[in-house]
Amino acid sequence: MPLTQPAPLLAIQASLAATPWADEPLVPMEDSGLAHAHLRLGETGWLLRIPKQSQMGLEPEAHLAYESACFSRAGPSGVTPAMAKSLPPDTALPRGALVVRAIDGRSATLPDDLPTLMRSLAAIHRLPLPAAAERAPLLAPHDPLASMYHEVLDQARYLADAGLAPEAEQGIRRELARFSASLETTQRPEQRLITFDSHPGNFLIDVDGQAWMVDLEKARYSYPGFDLAHATLYTSTTWDINSHAVLDNDAILAAYATWEREIGETGRSQRPWHLPLRRAMWLWSVTWCAKWQVTSGAPPLRNARGQDWSRQHNSEALNAHVQERVAHYLSPPVVRRMGKEFRSLAAAFADGLDTETQLTDDLE
Fold first, then answer.
1. Where is each Aminoglycoside phosphotransferase domain found (predicted)?
2. What residue numbers bound the domain in which 216 lies?
């Protein structure tokens, strides 16, 4: 039942009975995301972040613990909202909820706001890396590149049933083969805390021009290059209606250069990985599109557990937008566009991994 209906709001209000927000009116916000609904808690400056599902595939309690850890680990960066409380699952909130600081700001305007987005990502990436034993519950695979490959491969199972044109499917599978071959190198980039969901629509720009990263459900210890790619890929910058923009290569390269300067001494050493991780992040995004295309028509899961991409969780407007974007990103012209972009950026990242040029020659 939509959150705008009186009965659910009254039930959710009861879930806040033992909190400082017990008597605050609940103000529904625009349904703009596939993973959460949001309610403002009156004029307190806080909001209720209510999971529609767990993109991480977790049980409700484990999901809340994971999301709470995302906010607490990223908090010292100064560019993510504070979290005040975690509300356990109950009848009104079967997946629980988080109370987080509401950020008053506007959507990112690209490419003008790319420097501030990159500075905020660098602030997160500069956070000290915890000892391996202290990284849980966040994902912290021993080999994030191999882990990403298997995550992409799992989503790629849906390509055959997603109704793709043969040219598009073949282009995606060629990139998958390239990704597989890249695992043979023994080199790996530096690991840091990353957001793994840094598309521009997840940032708000405040009156001082600072970019706040407001969606931290999927943070993990991995490679910053995944965030840099997700912030500048065509499939990211054209996803959100309010921050929609098509970046040219100059804007993309300028964004990477800003991050390299902001991150400090290690920035330059990451350059060999910019293109391989960009290609991998695009594969993650486009195979997710295939997965959504195939699975979103299912009814909601009855037990409110794990991943659940059912369209019935969303408004008609949101579903229409996602469907249009998904079909666009899976189309032959966009797959061709991405291949062309990767080839054109290869020259700018010419001092990349020695294997990259060889892999491109072998697999084109």
1. 44-248
2. 106-295+331-363
